[in-house]
Design a protein that fits this description.
about 325 residues, alpha+beta, 3-stranded antiparallel sheet, 9 helices, about 20% strand
């Protein structure tokens, strides 16, 4: 007997002696491979028994009936998912990279004033009911995209193109989010909408230069209006302050003049009362008081008789000079 025949006989002996153990081990291995399933921390498993819903299992190791009797679908219920419209992100390593394909069919929208706008947006959502997600709608992801596109077209169609492109962007996103959630609840697809984000809103490429020119003109107009208001706020208050100051000075001057005139009138009335009582005495007193005020201001004066033309007057000039020294 050759060595080969001896090896064959030996293996036959081992198979005959340990065949049951080998078959049992293989059976157990196949059983484990077909009945043990791992559910991730952000997932839950939906188990079908012969094609019919059986149960929902939590994250971790779970056992199902082997040999295809039961089948499990893993649903990422704790993960935020998203759908992109009008563009596609191909990579997010250090800087987002976008696909060069044309998605204008998704992004072209007709506004309420019959103008076109190119709208790119993102729908962020979560699966909150895995049973409804799997069994209420045939293709939940495709249905969600169709509903999102329909809701966005309705939101844009209710507004003018200027509102969509400028001040009404947030309102469009909010209204679209409410409308899309309402559709999800109506179809019972088990999806909860977290947020709708308008990535970019632009006019069509053919009219974009003209639209940019209009926007630039509007911005320049706003700039000029702000500059005019700033100058107005700078000049008008100062002019009002100066006017108020002038009015106050005029009022003070008028009050001073009125008070002075009132005092002069009162003093004149007092003098007139005294004059009525003793005219000569009053006249003399007024004359003396007047001379008392005037004479100190006129300095040294020599008064001569105008009739003394033929006589050489001798004045005591030396005495006056000495007194002045």
């Amino acid at each position: 007997m050759t060595d080969f025949d001896q090896q064959v006989a030996y293996y036959r002996y081992l198979a005959k002696k340990h065949g049951r153990k080998i078959l049992l081990g293989a059976f157990v291995l196949i059983l484990l491979l077909t009945s043990v399933r791992t559910v991730g921390p952000e997932e839950e498993g939906v188990v079908l028994n012969l094609g019919q819903y059986s149960r929902t299992v939590n994250p971790g190791l779970n056992f199902i009936a082997p040999f295809g009797i039961e089948k499990m679908y893993k649903i990422p219920v704790q993960r935020q998912l998203k759908h992109e419209f009008g563009f596609r992100t191909t990579g997010t390593s250090s800087r987002s990279q976008y696909s060069d394909s044309d998605f204008s069919i998704e992004s072209s929208m007709l506004s309420g004033d019959l103008n076109m706008a190119d709208v790119e947006w993102v729908v962020q959502y979560r699966i909150e009911n895995s049973f409804q997600y799997l069994f209420r709608v045939k293709d939940p992801e495709r249905s969600l995209r169709d509903m999102a596109e329909s809701a966005m077209r309705k939101s844009v169609g209710d507004r003018t193109v200027n509102e969509v492109l400028t001040v009404g962007r947030q309102e469009v996103a909010t209204n679209m989010e409410v409308l899309l959630q309402k559709l999800c609840d109506e179809y019972e697809n088990g999806i909860r909408i977290d947020q709708v984000v308008l990535q970019d809103v632009n006019p069509p490429a053919l009219v974009k230069p003209s639209f940019n020119g209009v926007n630039q003109a509007q911005q320049e107009r706003e700039t000029l209006i702000n500059q005019a208001e700033s100058e107005y706020n700078s000049v008008i208050p100062r002019a009002r302050g100066e006017a108020k100051e002038t009015i106050q000075l005029a009022e003070a001057y008028a009050l001073n003049r009125v008070n002075g005139a009132t005092g002069d009138a009162a003093r004149f009335e007092a003098l007139y009362t005294e004059y009525i009582k003793a005219p000569e005495v009053t006249k003399k007193r007024i004359y003396l008081e007047t001379m008392e005020r005037i004479l100190p201001k006129i300095g040294n004066k020599i008064i001569v008789d105008e009739k003394g033309n033929n006589v050489l007057p001798l004045l005591n000039l030396g005495h006056k000079a000495a007194s002045s020294k």
